[in-house]
Amino acid sequence: MPKRETLARCVCCGSDSFVSLSDTVKAAQCRDCGIIFNYERPTWKDEPADADAYVEYDRFRPDHKWEKMWRFRYARVQALFPPTPVRPRLLDVGTGIGTFLALAREDFDVCGVEPSLAGVRKARELYGLEIIHGSLEDAGYPEKSFDAITMWHVFEHLPYPGDTLGLCRQLLKQDGKLFIAVPNSSLCRVIFNPVYWCARRDKRLAMRGVIPYEEGMVDLHVTHHAPRSLKRLLERFGFQVMDLDLDKTSLNPGLKTDLKYVVRHHFIRLFGCNPFKTILAVARAV
Length: 286
Description:
CATH superfamily: Vaccinia Virus protein VP39
Number of strands: 13
Helix content: 25-40%
Shape: globular
Strand order of the largest sheet: 8-7-6-9-10-13-12
CATH topology: Rossmann fold
Radius of gyration: 19 Å
Structural class: alpha/beta
Number of helices: 10
CATH class: Alpha Beta
Oligomer: single chain
Largest sheet: 7 strands, mixed
């Protein structure tokens, strides 16, 4: 049975100044960086053992819907890298079965790390990719190795995301690009959903994706991000935020889905507020 740890400092910036949001959920918000985090969680040395339980990669079969979602994401990355004589290098952290890297290798020299051994095997089986099994910290890449680093719904699972951001800054070349997609835990999500206005605090937190750790959980988000706090965190670790948008996660391609994304995209641009389920942050190393 995994052991639990109770944190006394923010896992992003290291501050010991934070306020508890709920004794039931056991989540707190840092007064310095604004990040919400679960202060009671499994010890990190116990969690990687559950990496293969998160998604049953051995049984997973990607289809055209899956590929279309990843093609849309890749287009967002590709747009910032016009053709050059020297192919840029891209690292995907938490690459899963490797669909994104299989697309990116058309224009980039690609590398990937993935904690699930089943995911590593699947990437080799489906796409012929050789992915490093483990964490970014264990991969041993030299400094200034990459022009782009991507994390697609990985950042919220990291035990110490501040340390990971610091490492990403070391691994990126000057002006290198970082792409982070995470669930959106902004208070705007409650404000734009009146049904939650009078709900209990724990229910409002759950609506924002902040839930307590329970034994056997394999999909635990240990940090919870809003656009403003994510921007502040990126700036703290040497990045300049270029864009804060939403990540398109729908597996139901079609005109209705595409129109919904366009409307939401322009809502964020017009009002400077994101009440939707996801965030995509794009930043450059400065």
